[in-house]
Specification:
Helix content: 10-25%
CATH class of the largest domain: Alpha Beta
CATH topology of the largest domain: Nuclear Transport Factor 2, Chain: A
Shape: globular
Bound molecules: zinc ion
CATH architecture of the largest domain: Roll
Largest sheet: 10 strands, antiparallel
Number of helices: 10
Distance between the termini: 33 Å
Radius of gyration: 28 Å
Structural class: alpha+beta
Number of domains: 3
Strand content: 25-35%
Length: 420
């Protein structure tokens, strides 16, 4: 969902009014652009009138150690009502998930008979329990959330986080920006002062209260004058980021199987072995990490070996589709339930760092094999994940053009402002 305010992109590109319109569109007061939808308020009023008894409405914020039972007792709600409410299946299901900071709303009459109770389910859904004679009825209620489109533009001087903070791009979205491009850019090495970004993202509001910084819809990152672009697109319930021509930004393999401290040994066909002290090819990469660090599958695959094997120590072999196999050695242990033949998802933990087998310290020895031929995991050209399927192509092109158009428009306007 994109709210473009009253700006008509194509016409405005040619007009001087562009700047004014963009400014109006971004600085619009929120209260105006985000009408608050509360379906329940009116129901409550009608009831008050019908019963001609006065209802008290309260919102209680849960404190540490609070629970629903305690809150209801504290407000001296009729004991009968409390036990009826706590016996409701959908209430028991969420009562244990309530935590400090959650809001519970309730209304009751003069005799402390509960009329309505509202419990938070997710940030957009609430569970509403209403009196129905002597009993209570449960309804799920979805409060309509409104989105507000936002932009951020920044130039990197010291770090991307600093630039993001200067551009008022929320920290969470700066991390997200890095994750989107992490497949092509090594953020610890590639960035230079003067590199810049433009981001189109969405905030979510309940009424005029910000409830969540939504996701990045489109982004452009200039690294040493090369533009990298990303457009978010949903296929079914899943979303991914694609380049404007529909290629996935994701590679089908993660570059490394864990968060490592350093690379302790590279792929080298003529190396002196640190334990054996003989000349022996090193057909993988060693990632040093503290003992017990989780090791993750670099791609979807199947466990074809899990156990001890000579110098590898405790090792896992994964077979991926087609011609790819990966190997993870010197583990301290495996996940308890993992067996040979199990299907594994990318990022799933398949073991923990150790130093079993021929290892001089805790690390994972990672091999990448193509047609059972060892290749350098740091240099192999990793295959890309699936591009936009053909049947979504036309729709994707529309979304991509619209979002990139918005980004460019904003960028042009911003540059224009700086030059004045
Ligand atoms: Zn090794």
């Amino acid at each position: 969902m994109i709210s473009t305010g009253s700006c008509n992109t194509s016409k405005l590109l040619k007009h001087v009014g562009l700047l004014v319109c963009l400014l109006l569109f971004t600085i619009q007061p929120l209260a105006k652009s985000v009408p608050y939808v509360v379906a329940l308020a009116s129901t409550s009023e009608t009831k008050t009138v019908r019963h001609t008894t006065r209802l008290t409405s309260k919102q209680v914020t849960l404190k540490k150690g609070d629970n629903l039972n305690r809150i209801l007792r504290r407000l001296s709600i009729a004991k009968d009502d409390i036990s009826k409410i706590l016996k409701l299946k959908s209430v028991t299901a969420i009562a244990s998930r309530l935590k400090a900071g959650n809001h519970v709303r309730l209304s009751y009459d003069n005799n402390r008979n509960l009329q309505r109770l509202t419990l938070p389910l997710t940030f957009e859904k609430t569970l509403v329990i209403e009196r129905d004679g002597d009993d209570f009825q449960v309804k799920k209620h979805i409060e309509e959330l409104k989105t507000q489109t936002r932009f951020a533009i920044g130039t990197i001087h010291q770090s991307l986080y600093q630039a993001a903070s200067d551009a008022r791009l929320p920290h969470k979205l700066a991390s997200k920006l890095m994750r989107i491009f992490a497949w092509d850019i090594d953020f610890s090495r590639d960035l230079r002062p003067g590199d810049r970004f433009v981001v189109l993202y969405q905030d979510w509001y309940k009424g005029n209260k910000l409830v969540r910084h939504g996701d990045i819809l489109a982004a452009k990152l200039f690294v040493r004058n090369k533009a990298h672009q990303a457009i978010r697109y949903n296929i079914g319930k899943k979303y991914s980021y694609f380049s404007p021509d529909g290629r996935s930004l994701k590679k089908s393999f993660l570059r490394a199987p864990l968060k490592f401290t350093r690379i302790s040994s590279r792929f080298n066909l003529h190396r002196r072995h640190p334990v054996l002290h003989t000349l022996r090819a090193h057909r993988g990469v060693d990632y040093a990490a503290p003992r017990g660090t989780p090791i993750k599958a670099t791609a979807n695959g199947k466990v074809i070996f899990r156990g001890r094997k000579g110098g590898y120590g405790k090792v896992v072999f994964l077979k991926h589709w087609g011609k790819y196999t990966t190997v993870y050695a010197h583990m301290s242990r495996f996940p308890r339930r993992m067996r040979i033949g199990d299907k594994i998802k990318q990022g799933q933990v398949i073991g923990y760092v150790g130093s079993t087998g021929l290892a001089s310290g805790p690390h994972v020895h990672y091999e990448f094999r193509v047609n059972n031929h060892h290749v350098d995991p740091l240099k192999v050209k990793l295959p890309r994940a699936q591009p936009i399927p053909r049947k979504y192509r036309a729709k994707f092109n529309i979304v991509a053009n619209e979002r990139l158009g918005q980004l460019n428009l904003y960028e042009t306007a911003h540059v224009g402002l700086e030059e004045r």
